[in-house]
Amino acid sequence: MIAIVILLVISITAVAWIVSSQWRLNRQRNIITSKPFPTQWRHILKKRFPYFKAMPTDLQLQLKKHIQIFINEKQFVGCDGFEINDEVKVTIAAQACLLLLNRKTNYYPKLKQILVYPSAFIVEKNRTDLAGVQSSQRNVLLGESWEYGKVVLSWNSTIEGAADPFDGSNVVIHEFAHQLDQEDGTANGAPPLRDITSYRSWSSTLGQEFKQLQYCAQQHIPSLFNYYGATNPAEFFAVISETFFERPVEFYQQHQQLYKELSQFYQLDPINWH
């Protein structure tokens, strides 16, 4: 009888701890955002993230709070001798948190670490063909998003993407769009939407536009979107997210329905910032 009571108490305690974990996390986040945004970080935003100046004041305030939480919760790791400092953290966090504005967010819950290389890095992948023959392939990358808690970035590419906020190319936005896509499993171009009724329109619109980009890539027809987006639906979502934030006017003019889908998903309309 005593053993049953002890087990019951332990079970209730465990459940209470799990249930209260989000409350404790939110409380910690409120403490973090109640502190003033560091002056040094404001200087870094001004130096490395010119996009910030174009944003409405309310979104600037949101972004700064998101940056504080992101930096507090994520681990930054320098690779190949690269040194992590506040400039690196703020520059990456600012771009990553653009994707979280105006949305209920848990700050990329699967993400634990951001690995930063000084420049492009090499990833070696093992492949097995249909005959069972294994081979090794070395790829030179600027960024990569892993399903199991990591994003890998090139610092050179990170600051280049931030320096020109209107060229439609941003490796941080690209990789963190993958993180959003991976929140409900494997990246497939369909991140968690606000309600189940949104998936039909999302699937129809993005499916048609994806096929159109594939056709443009095959026929070498100029497109607003990088041909890399024609690789698969996951890459398509990441590529159009870059364009949505950095070239919204052309995006809306040329792909109005697709723009509306992303605007509804991100709860933003960056046309007004440009």
From TrEMBL:
GO terms for molecular function: aminopeptidase activity; metallopeptidase activity. This is Zinc-dependent peptidase. GO terms for cellular component: cytosol. It comes from the Bacteria. Pfam families: Peptidase_M90.
